[in-house]
Amino acid sequence: MQEDSASLPLLPTLPKSLTGIDGLDEITEGGLPKGRPTLVCGSAGCGKTLMAIEFLVRGILDYNEPGVLMTFEETAAELSSNVASLGFDLPQMQANKMLRLDHVHVDRSEIEETGEYDLEGLFIRLGYAIDSIGAKRVVLDTVEALFSGFPNEAVLRSEIRRLFRWLKDKGVTTIITAERGEGTLTRQGLEEYVSDCVILLDNRVIDQITTRRLRIVKYRGSTHGTNEYPYLITEEGFSVLPITSLNLQHEVSNDIVSSGVAALDEMFGRGGFYRGSSVLITGTAGTAKTTLASAFAAEACRRGEKCLLFAFEESPRQLVRNMLSVGLDLQPFLDQGLLYIEASRPTLNGLERHLVTVHKLINKHQPQTVVIDPITNLISVGSLSEVRSMLTRLIDYLKVHGITALFTALTSPRNGQSEMTEEGVSSLVDTWINVRDLEGVGERNRGLSILKSRGMGHSNQVREFLVTDNGIQLLDVIIGPSGIVTGAGRLTQELQEQAQAIGRQQELDRKDRELERKRRVLEATIANLRTEFESVEEELRQINDEEATRREALHKGRQHIASLSIGRISTPSDDQP
């Protein structure tokens, strides 16, 4: 029997300092080690300096922790100018006594190395800067410039250890930036060993597309994310893309939303999709995936909900025009601000930029519904595994925020499966609808089926549907001698069934007429029999009446005769004495 987890003693955790950088605190499970140095290393252009500065700025703005920025390459004016476009006002922070910015110029030609040369002067200068504002955070950018004056490797290693020990003793949370070396994380190959936390930034170019990745190489005393995570440098600063929710503890809803097609809703046990769920529509080209997606978006707008539609193949005007041909007028929803269409080619940005664009637009418009048409176009800007990873994070992000999402994906006409679905994206969604061609003799028709729908029953039929001037119309299933029939076969079957129905109706009408004739004959026979019966009855009644009259007359005659006889007997004779 397992012991109750509530009775187990809580183990001490390593104190951490939140960075305030989007996504980084999630990966580090609470931030950087408090009061300890963290090494941020990487090649040129990967954003080491920007990440370090944002660590200071977020500490000042979000956590009221003063910071010191000591730079060995760029001057204070240059740094202030570089980050001003991100909205970071370093001079104002200096004026508020929350930031101390110090530029240290190190020129190797001016240094004469002696056996007693060390960084004592730097410690004094840095210590004064920390004490002057009560700094809690420190950034040293970059350490290579500082150590360029130490050609003696033994002295160099000793001073590196002294620097890291001094920072620990000072109790400040520090970021030290370093350039990546050949085969090592840093030029000297030592800093990563004495640092409590090491973060590696990588800027790579694959198929002419720039991709930035972040990895936590080590983190003493704490668990952390060990994978490579994409990150971006945007006009809003340094951002590690949100990772998936490992615990899968997001809230769920029992509310049902319509697909925009009434007949399709009837195929689901509860009459639609769960709010906050994810829906995937797959199919070959020309199977009305975009039309179904647009109908879903239009229905959301009719409910008064905001919808964000990402179109990777059509411009907003083209999409509005094309949907008018099937009876969907999206323009009023655009005018009301309920529908926003973001249209761009996938190759315009990398996968991470697309994901950040989705996040920004969701934060800006606060939609209840998101439609992406189609996700398979993203393969052109990344590998299958990268696209799957990006979509995993996106689906998880939408679920956490309770947003109902619909994705379309193009499938191969050869095997009927999509590269994306084969790679497991279909397993991430809650509902999977497949539209496909139903090819007959000399014609092509469209069919729709529900492959899965988590949490509710659904139809297992393959329904033929038409794209009409009034939208999508699902047709009833018709079964012929060889199975389900579609297209011309459906019309032929319907005509045959109509002819059979007419024949059956005519036969029923004939039988009704025959029955009516028989009824009339029977009624006439019954009337004749009734008349004959009445005649016999009348004759019998007359005989009975005559017999009764005769009997009555006979009875009266007898009474008369009897009365006469009595009269004679009772009257005395005249000649009697």
Automatic annotation (TrEMBL):
Q: Which residues form the signal peptide?
A: none
- Record's keyword annotation contains Hydrolase: yes
> In this entry, which stretches build a coiled coil?
505-556
| Nucleotidyltransferase is among the record's keywords | no
What Enzyme Commission number(s) apply to this enzyme?
2.7.11.1
Q: What region holds the KaiC domain?
A: 15-254, 255-488
Ordered alphabetically, the record's keywords are: Coiled coil, Hydrolase, Kinase, Phosphoprotein, Repeat, Transferase
Q: Cite the GO molecular-function annotations of the record.
A: ATP binding; hydrolase activity; protein serine/threonine kinase activity
PANTHER family on file: CIRCADIAN CLOCK OSCILLATOR PROTEIN KAIC 1 (PTHR42926:SF1), PTHR42926
Protein known as: non-specific serine/threonine protein kinase
- What gene is it encoded by? kaiC
